[in-house]
Backbone:
């Protein structure tokens, strides 16, 4: 795995080596080959910047294309083609999207990182996302594994290490280890 600086440095080195100006005294065939090689290098670098490991720097915007949602970049270019019935903003490299009435999470390449299995979901917060599965809410990690099994009637996102949850008529807070603490002052009351 290389860093952003290493990729940028390798790109600059290759541009210097294959730039057509360096081959201006060569036969036409070789100059043409250098131009083709440079184009491949530039295309590869742009692809890495747009979709690769370093894509966190690129902000993608959820866009309603009419019947379906996709994502555009800051210049308005379609980056992830519209194929979702709903789409949310990216949070830490993952975006919640709905496909065939189920929610899952995609990466900035548009690939499923967490398959669409959930009836509803919240965005990732503090490494976990609340998801509703078979009518109950639980929390999954960024690999899609349940960190806290689905057992709650309602669940909110994590804030400062705790998430508000409702079990039956009682509200409480759960931590990432799944430890539940009921709040007697809020039992039976709705949290807004």
Residues:
């Amino acid at each position: 795995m290389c860093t952003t600086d290493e990729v940028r440095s390798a790109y600059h080195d290759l541009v210097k080596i294959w730039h057509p100006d360096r081959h201006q005294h060569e036969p036409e065939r070789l100059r043409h080959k250098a131009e083709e090689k440079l184009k491949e290098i530039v295309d590869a670098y742009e692809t890495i910047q747009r979709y690769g490991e370093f894509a966190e720097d690129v902000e993608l915007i959820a866009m309603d294309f009419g019947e379906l949602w996709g994502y555009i970049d800051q210049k308005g270019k379609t980056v992830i083609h519209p194929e979702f019935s709903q789409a949310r903003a990216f949070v830490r490299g993952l975006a919640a999207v709905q496909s065939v009435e189920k929610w899952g999470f995609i990466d900035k390449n548009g690939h499923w990182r967490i398959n669409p299995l959930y009836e509803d979901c919240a965005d990732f917060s503090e490494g976990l996302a609340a998801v509703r599965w078979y009518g109950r809410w639980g929390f999954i990690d960024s690999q899609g594994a349940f960190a806290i099994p689905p057992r709650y009637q309602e669940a909110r996102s994590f804030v400062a290490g705790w998430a508000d949850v409702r079990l039956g008529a009682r509200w409480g807070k759960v931590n990432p280890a799944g430890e539940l603490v009921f709040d007697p002052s809020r039992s039976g009351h709705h949290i807004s």
User: Anything to note?
Assistant: The chain has two helices and 15 strands. Residues 84 and 99 are 5 Å apart (CA to CA).
